[in-house]
Amino acid sequence: MSEKEKTAGNEDQPEENVDCCRRNLMIGALTMAVAPLGASRVEAETDASSMLPQVGDTLVYLTGGPRNEIIDPADLKVGEEPKLAYPMDPKTKTVRSRSRLNLLLVARLPADDVEKDTQSLTADEVVAYSAVCTHNGCVISAMNETEHEFVCNCHGSTFDAGDRGAIVHGPATRRLAILPLKEGDGDLTVAADFIGRLGPPR
Amino acid sequence: MRKLTYAALLAIAMVPSAYAADGPGEYKTVTDERLANPEPENWLMTKGSYKGWSYSPLDQITAKNVSKLEPVWSGATGMAYGHEAPAIVNGRYMFVSTPKNQVLAFDAKTGRLLWRYKRELPDGFGALHMTNRGVALWGDNVYVAGIDCKLDALDAKTGKLVWESEVCDWQNDSAYITSAPLVVKGQVIVGPSGGEFGVRGFIKAFDAKTGKELWTTYGVPGPGEAGYETWPHEGEWKDAWKDGGGTMWMPGNYDSDNDIIYWGVGNGSPWPGDQRPGDNLYLASVMAINPDDGDVEGHYQYHWNDSWDWAGMNAPALVDFDKDGKKVPGLITAQRNGYLYWLNREPDGKITYDHAVPYVKNTVFKTLDPKTGRPTYNEEAKVGTGKTATYCPSLWGGKDWFYQAYNPKTKMLYIPFNDNHCMTLTGLVQPIIPGQWSAGVDINKLDLKADKDFPYIGGIQAWNINDRKQVWKDTYKKSWNFGSILTTAGDVIFAGGTNDRKFRAYDAKSGDLLWEFPTPSGIISPPSSFEIDGKQYIAVVSGYGVDAQWIQSKMAVQDGWEPEVPEGGSVWVFALPDDKK
User: What class has domain B388-426+446-581?
Assistant: First the structure.
C-alpha cells in the first residue's frame, strides 16, 4: 500500500498500532531458535521464578516472617496483619519472585466470616489472594478492623477476603483473585490456579 | 499517445498537491539546529524551547483581541486519568500522549486523527501516578516513554514502532516513567519516577537513531562519586543511598551555547530525613550535566536532607537577569519548597546562589545563608521517624510539577502556585517491597489541611526577574492550581489548573482576566501555541486526575468542595475568527 493510500484511508479509520503480543511472540520465537543449550537452561530457571503459582507450590514469607522461609499455618493468627508471600517450587526451592503477579496476601480469617463457597478454597480459614490491587496495581498489605477485609494502601479499595475477594467498596471494579490453598505438612500448598483476573484492567 | 502521456503526468503531478492541500503534507525532519532555534510557528518540545520558558514568540493573539478566541476543533483521547502532556506540534503534525501508553497524532489544522499508537500495560502493572507528560521529537521520530519503563521511538508519519529500549525495571524496582524525554544532540534522555517506592533516581541517554543505551547519571551518587560523602556509611542507615530517591521525573532544560543540560532532582526516599542523615546530594537539587557522557559539571541544592517530599524535579529556566547593573546568565525557578531562586549559571556548568525569596508561606526555613542560600530549619517542622511534624507548604509545595513561564518581553516570570496549606506527617520505617509504597509515612495518614478561613489556595503570581519583585497576583478562593502556564509575545498568558474546568487568558502585564472557556474536564496539561498558514492557534489538553483529584476529594471532606472533577481526556485548539485577527 502506498503512503498516499494509507493516509487517505485515515479519514474515517485512523491507523491504529496496538503493539503488545505479536512482537513479543516473534522475539520469543527468535530466542528459542538461536539460544544455545546453556542459555536455555538459564532461561528455564528464570521462567520458573516468574511462572504463576503452580499446583503443589508451597508459600514463603516476603513480609511478616523470615524472608523466603516456608509459612507454617500454625503461626498465622486471626486479626494479625496479612503476610506478603511468594509461591515456591518445593522441589527446586525456586521462589517465584520475578513476577509482580506472584505477590500473595496471606491471612487467617475468623471462621464465621468465611462464606460457604470460599471455605473450600482455604486451608482451615487461611486464605491467599493476589496482592495486586485491581484498581491501579498497587500492592495491598493491610487488613481493616473487620479482620476479613483487605484495604489497598493507595486509594482505599476494600475487598472481602471471606467472600472470594468481592469488592466492599471501590474505586476498584474487579474482585481480587483468590489462590486456592490446602494445608500441607506444616505448610500451605497451592491447590489450584488463581480464580479471577489478576491486577487492574489494561 | 503523447497527449495521453502528458495527461497522465499531469494527473500524477496534481494528486500530491491536491492531497497536500487536504492533509498535513510532508513531515519536516527535526534537527539539532531546529531544536536549538525553534521556529515561532512550531512547538517542538514540552516547554517550547531548550530554555524552559514555555513562551511562544507568536503575537497574532494579543491582550486586546484574545477575548474573541474561539474553539476550532477538539478531539477525545478515549482515556480517563490525568492528562499532563502538552500538544507537541511540528508543521501540521500534532502529537499528544495520554495515560496508559497511548500517543495520538492529529492534523493540527483540522483535528483529523492521523494515527494512534497504543501499547498494552503488562499484567499486574501498577503505578502511583498513571499519567504521561509528553513526547519528544528528533529526526523523523516521535519518542515516548511508557509508564512501564519502555522508551519507544515511533515513525512520526505512521506511528509505527521504530525501536524500543528498556529504561528501568517496574517489576522488581517499582520504577515507572511519567516524564517527557528531552532530546539533545541526537540522544533521547529520560528518567523514571518512584521516589515513594525506594527508587534511586537516574536519567539515561539513548541513541535517537538506534535506541542504544549511551550513559546513565544517578540523582544519588554511588561509591567513588562526588557527593557520596553526603550520605551515611555506617550504622543503621549505611545503605540509605541505594534506595535514597532523587528521581529525575521531569524533563530538563539545555544551554545549547555552553552545551550543558540542567536537570531537576526529586525528593528523598523515605521522606523522614533522619533515616538518611547528611545533606544527601543531589536530592532537591538542580544538576548540570555534560550531554556527551553524563558527567556532573555542577549542582545547586535548594535544601539539605529533604524531609518534606519537596522534590526539586523542575529544572530552572535559563534566563539573563540584572545584577549589579549588568545582565548576567542565570537560572530562575519557583521551587516546591516555596522559595523563588535566582542562581548564577557559569559556562562550565558551575551553579552558584544569588538570591531567594519565599513566594508562599514556608514554616520550615528559619534563615537562608546570604552567600549560599543554605537554609537553617525549624526542627519542630522536620518530619522524623516516630516524630510527628506539621509544616507548610504541604508536600505539594508552593508549586508542584507544572511549568512556570518566562516572557522575555515583559521580563516577568509567571508562577502557578498554591498557598495556605500545610501537612502533618509521622515518620515510620517501612520495608521496601516491589510495588508497595515505602515513603516512610502511612499513605492513609497524609494529613493535608488548609489554613482556617483561608482566603485562597491556588493562583498565579507574576514576578519581574530584574527588580525581583512581585508585579501582580491572581488568586482562587475555591480551587488549587495544578496548571502550567503558557506566555506569548502577544502579552497574554494562558492557564488552566482549576477545578472549575476552565481555560483562561490573562493580560500578561496586568494580570487582568481577559477570556475563559469551560472544557469537559479540568486542565492539568501545559498549553502550547503554533501557527499554520499565517494563523496562530492555542492548544491544550483537558483531563483532570492524579494528585489534583486526590486533593479535591480531601477539600470536599474538609471544606465542602465538590468531591470530584469529571475525568476524560480531550484536545482543544483555539484561534481568533478570521475577521478578528
Answer: mainly beta
